[in-house]
Structure formats: structure tokens, C-alpha cells
Structure to design on (625 residues):
């Protein structure tokens, strides 16, 4: 646990149990006590063809824990409740979940259900998101907010007005000045009185990677001059009382409470100005930005950590708003936040498997054979042996690098054969080992697509805690980087927490070696695409059930098949199968064609990861043109 800093980034949800496996702590309920669930047991159960309805789900696998999600929501709410009570703040906190962070139906439905006792709502940023938020909130608390953000056309605004008509507590937030004209026109046409918010562009700037949307030159929101024009337009239309909410978003992963308080204080001044200008203000929506400590370092100088707790975050927000409003004698507004990352990151774990390893110099020891170290090379051999025996290890290592480069050049010119090149590789590795330079970093091939399942690792070099989920009571003997199965050299992970460029790993000797990516429940699933036509992972939902250490798989969904992902790119798998089957009967004997065709049918039906070629198992297949 200490080697991978599990307590730092994983507490209070993840720990290492006595068996050396990752355990997930569910936080119990009135009827069920707190329990530890062994993650390896879940993976074994989900992939066992004899279990959960014979599904035998393939990896990679997303394991979701609704109990963890519930606990995150409750902790966020109680952090604000506590801050409000201890500061004597004159209103309440009522959050919304931005569905873009993870639009999975069950995640959104759970949030609406778990958040219903405290009026937790949803935020949408597009028409499809609005549709899903509307239908989910029909089953939620009637006071829960439905915040409509994002760029809006007439259809989006009409839909938001319809939501209002359906008695959903809808706020249309202006992101662009022109939207106000559309809202005035459409609300009059449809005879629906809207509740309007506006997004302000703050001057406060968050300088980290996730702060690109903040500051005066940020992409979203209204400038001071635009806010004043919007107020005037609404006033002229007799709709200034509709303006009730001020929204801003400093950026995701806000590093410190100092920056947060600065931004919230500026926004509170704008809020008070809107009150002065005659708007019917009720809510201040502080956007997202509540960060996650991905490496457990509790640092405010890093994009992947934050220097505050949930309680400190809530207290900084409440204090900053109250200071400004009390000074200006403005009634304390309802505080809304759009925390996404902080709510959904912990609830899912992506589990994948190492399916093989290779070193940078493959199969070296067996390739080293003295007869090939002949001629010129025997001189080098002598030099290296002498330097090694004399303890001059640095010269040895430098010399081997130089020797290797020289031999590669000679190989390119045809002066050195393949066996000699392999022998030099072997010699270099022996020297590295002899001088104690350690084994080179290995490449672990893992059965997933980084582009599909961890897109931020590729796109913005984000670092997530990735560790083996078992054998944690065994000292890892090698270091490795992870390479995915896509045919793309960017499909790798070579940046890990603590600034490491490789991960301590165990030997994969027979058996299965499972790794987990933690804290990726926000954004990663929502962003992932179909690069190399690898589909998404299988998913299971796991809840605690009666008895110690026991759990129930309450839902299991296989990942998309090869046919499914081909359909995404407009291919027609049924037709493709017919074409290939037809060709099989043309080129292969009748019996073998039938075997081939059924193998092909299975391949279309299986997940795109690791389709075993042995399914074809037919001599004709290899010989077919
Ligand atoms: N609200 C808005 C407007 C956003 O742009 C975002 C994401 O960047 C969020 C909320 C969610 O932010 P976070 O995941 O940092 O809580």
C-alpha cells in the first residue's frame, strides 16, 4: 500500500486487505453495516462464464460502486451544510451534477435518487444532455435545479422552456449575449416565463492546465459590458425579474482555496451589482472546479493534486460569499455548485489485464552467444570485461551504449549480421546486470485502448493512480510501462503518480495479472472514442449485500462487440459477414468453410479486444488466399 501510496489517494474508499488485494470500502447504510469488498473477487466473478448469468464478461471491465457515489454526494452536501451552519450563513446549498462528466444512465439516475433528500439537481450543456436530465429529474425532488448551460440555438431554448412548463426547476443560463434575444422572443411566443441565469467571465484566472476557460480572455461567459447590455434588454422587455442566477466557472481542478476565494469573492460582487441593478437574484452558481487528489500529495502546485479537503472548499466558498453580501447588505443567496469530478471520480474502477511483457531488448540472454562476438567485437568484449573487473562501471555503461550505436550503424551498412547484432544486445544487457544497473524498464501489454478508456492520459498527459489490484503483499521485482493493444505508439502509459516514468510491477508468470485505474469515473468514459475500433469496456455495478465481505453484482453489461463498433463507422457487419462467408465457400473445402464461417460469426460477436485467432483452428484458414 505504501509503495503505491494507496492511503494517500485512495482513502477512505480503497485500501489493501490481508490477502494483498485492493478492497473497496462501502460506507454502509441504516440497514447494512460498513463493509470491505475484495476487488479481485469481483473481477473473477464477472469474468467467470459460470457466474452472473453465464456472461463471462471480458476485460477491460469498469466496476461501479453506487455506495461510493452515494457517499461522495452525502459528503459534499454535509461539507456545505456544516460550513453554512458554522458561519451562520443565511441560506442553503443546493448542488447540481454536470452530466457531461459521466452521462451513463445509471450514474445519472443514482445521483438523482441519492441526492433527492437534499434537492440535488443536474446540469446540461447540450440538447441530448438536456433531454436526459429532464427525463431523469422527473423522478427527482421537484425543487432540484435543472441548469441549462452551453451554447444554445432556438431549439435548445425552446426545449428548456418546455422543461420549465413541465414543472422542472429550470434555469436557462446565458453563455452568449445573443441568447437573450432568443429567450425573450421564444418565451413570449410560447407564453412561458423563464428563469434566467447568466454566466460571467471573471477576471480571476486559474493558471493550471484546467484553467483555460477562466479569465477575461476565456472562451465562455459574458464580459462586464455584455452583462450590462443584457440587464438593459431584459428590463426593456419587462423581464428583469426573470434574471435570478449568476453563474461562473473558474476552471476544473482549482488548486487552492486562496484562488477559489478570490474568484468567488469577485463573483459575489457581480451578484450584488445585479441586485443593485434590479434583477431578482436568488442563486449564485459557482460552477465546477472542486478538485481530486490523484496522487495523494495534497499539493496546490500540481495539476493532479489539490491542497484542500471538501470541508475547506465549502468553508472558503461560504465565507467568501457571505463577506461580500453582508458588507453590501444583500440577502445571502442559495449556493449552487456544479461539481463533477469530485462526485463521480471515485465510483468506478477500470480493471484490465497484462497479457504479456517485453523488454526494450527482447530475448537477450538466449540471443547472447559467444561465437558471434568475433573479430572486432572480441576487442570490445575484452575492454568491457577489464573495465567491469576493475569496478569502472560508468565507463562500462557508456561504452556499451557507444558499442551498440556503432554496431547498429554497421548493421545498416551490411557489415554486421543479425546474429551479431543480437549478441551485442545480449552483451550489453549482461554488462548492465553485472554492474548492477538493473533490468531495463519492461513494456507490459495491457488489454485495453488508452484512447477509449483513459483518453486524458493521451490527450493532456493526465496522471491517474494505476496499480496492480492484487499481489500487493509481494514486493514487485521489475519496473514497467504499460502499452495498450492499439496499433498506435501513443497508446501507452509512461507517466505515473509521484512523477515516476515507470511502475513497480510483478512478474507475469502464468495466471492473470490485473491492474486497476482509479479515480477515472469523471470525463474518461464520456470522452473515449473508438480509435482503432476498440470498443468500450464491459461494466458491472456492485453493491454491498448481507454478510461480511459480500457483494452483489446488480447489473452486468458486456462491452460492444466487433460488429457494434463497426456499425459506429457506418459499416454493415451482417453484409460483411455474408461476403466473407461467401468467399470462404468459394476458396475452402465445404466442411472447413463452415468452420471458418462460424469462427467469423463469433469474431463479429465478440469484443474487439484479444479475439483469439485459435477460434479458426483450421489448416485451410492459414492457407486461404
Ligand atoms: N460546470 C462547467 C460550466 C464546466 O465547464 C465544468 C467542467 O469543466 C464543470 C461544471 C465540472 O467541473 P468539475 O469536474 O471540475 O467539477
Amino acid at each position: 500500500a505504501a509503495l503505491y501510496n494507496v492511503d494517500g489517494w485512495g482513502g477512505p474508499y480503497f485500501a489493501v486487505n490481508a490477502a494483498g488485494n485492493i478492497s473497496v470500502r462501502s460506507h454502509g447504510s441504516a440497514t447494512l453495516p460498513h463493509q470491505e469488498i475484495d476487488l479481485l473477487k469481483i473481477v473473477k466473478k464477472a469474468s467467470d462464464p459460470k457466474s452472473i448469468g453465464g456472461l463471462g464478461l471480458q476485460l477491460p471491465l469498469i466496476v461501479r460502486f453506487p455506495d461510493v457515489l452515494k457517499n461522495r454526494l452525502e459528503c459534499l452536501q454535509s461539507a456545505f451544510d456544516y460550513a453554512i451552519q458554522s458561519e451562520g450563513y443565511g441560506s442553503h446549498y443546493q448542488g447540481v451534477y454536470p452530466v457531461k462528466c459521466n452521462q451513463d444512465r445509471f450514474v445519472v439516475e443514482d445521483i438523482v435518487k441519492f441526492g433527492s433528500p437534499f434537492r440535488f439537481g443536474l446540469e446540461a450543456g447540450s440538447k441530448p444532455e438536456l433531454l436526459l436530465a429532464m427525463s431523469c429529474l422527473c423522478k427527482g425532488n421537484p425543487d432540484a435545479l435543472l441548469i441549462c448551460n452551453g451554447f444554445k440555438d432556438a431549439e435548445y431554448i425552446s426545449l428548456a422552456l418546455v422543461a420549465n412548463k413541465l414543472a422542472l426547476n429550470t434555469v436557462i443560463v446565458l453563455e452568449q449575449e445573443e441568447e437573450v434575444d432568443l429567450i425573450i422572443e421564444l418565451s413570449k411566443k410560447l407564453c412561458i416565463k423563464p428563469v434566467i441565469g447568466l454566466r460571467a467571465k471573471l477576471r480571476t484566472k486559474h493558471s493550471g492546465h484546467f484553467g483555460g476557460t477562466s479569465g477575461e480572455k476565456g472562451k465562455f461567459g459574458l464580459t462586464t459590458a455584455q452583462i450590462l447590455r443584457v440587464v438593459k434588454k431584459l428590463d426593456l422587455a419587462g423581464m428583469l425579474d426573470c434574471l435570478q442566477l449568476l453563474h461562473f466557472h473558474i476552471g476544473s481542478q482549482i488548486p487552492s482555496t486562496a484562488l477559489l476565494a478570490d474568484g468567488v469573492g469577485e463573483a459575489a460582487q457581480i451578484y450584488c451589482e445585479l441586485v443593485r441593478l434590479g434583477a431578482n437574484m436568488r442563486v449564485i452558481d459557482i460552477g465546477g472546479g472542486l478538485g481530486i487528489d490523484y496522487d495523494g500529495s495534497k499539493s496546490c502546485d500540481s495539476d493532479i493534486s489539490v491542497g484542500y479537503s471538501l470541508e475547506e472548499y465549502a468553508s472558503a466558498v461560504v465565507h467568501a460569499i457571505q463577506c461580500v453580501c453582508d458588507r453590501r447588505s444583500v440577502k445571502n443567496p442559495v449556493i449552487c455548485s456544479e461539481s463533477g469530478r469530485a462526485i463521480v471520480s471515485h465510483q468506478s474502477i477500470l480493471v484490465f489485464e497484462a497479457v504479456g511483457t517485453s523488454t526494450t531488448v527482447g530475448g537477450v540472454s538466449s540471443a547472447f552467444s559467444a561465437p558471434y562476438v568475433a573479430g572486432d567485437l572480441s576487442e570490445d568484449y575484452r575492454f568491457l570485461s577489464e573495465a567491469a573487473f576493475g569496478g569502472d562501471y560508468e565507463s562500462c555503461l557508456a561504452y556499451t551504449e557507444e558499442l551498440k550505436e556503432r554496431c547498429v550503424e554497421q548493421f545498416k551498412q551490411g557489415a554486421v549480421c543479425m546474429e551479431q547484432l543480437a549478441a551485442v544486445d545480449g552483451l550489453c544487457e549482461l554488462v548492465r546486470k553485472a554492474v548492477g544497473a538493473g533490468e531495463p524498464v519492461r513494456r507490459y501489454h495491457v488489454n485495453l485502448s488508452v484512447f477509449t478508456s483513459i483518453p486524458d492520459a493521451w490527450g493532456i498527459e493526465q496522471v491517474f493512480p494505476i496499480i496492480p489490484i492484487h499481489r500487493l503483499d509481494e514486493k514487485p521485482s521489475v519496473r514497467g510501462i504499460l502499452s495498450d493493444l492499439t496499433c498506435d505508439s501513443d497508446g501507452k502509459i509512461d507517466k505515473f503518480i509521484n512523477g515516476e516514468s515507470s511502475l513497480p510491477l510483478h512478474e507475469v508468470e502464468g495466471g492473470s495479472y490485473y491492474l486497476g485505474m482509479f479515480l477515472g469515473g469523471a470525463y474518461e468514459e464520456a470522452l473515449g472514442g473508438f480509435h482503432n475500433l476498440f470498443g468500450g469496456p464491459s461494466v458491472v455495478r456492485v453493491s454491498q449485500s448481507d454478510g461480511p465481505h459480500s457483494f452483489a453484482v446488480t447489473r452486468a453489461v458486456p462491452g460492444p462487440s466487433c460488429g457494434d463498433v463497426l456499425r459506429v463507422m457506418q459499416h454493415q457487419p451482417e453484409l460483411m459477414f455474408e461476403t466473407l462467408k461467401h468467399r470462404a465457400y468459394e476458396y475452402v473445402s465445404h466442411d472447413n468453410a463452415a468452420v471458418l464461417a462460424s469462427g467469423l460469426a463469433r469474431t463479429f460477436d465478440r469484443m474487439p479486444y484479444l479475439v483469439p485467432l485459435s477460434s479458426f483452428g483450421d489448416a485451410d484458414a492459414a492457407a486461404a488466399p
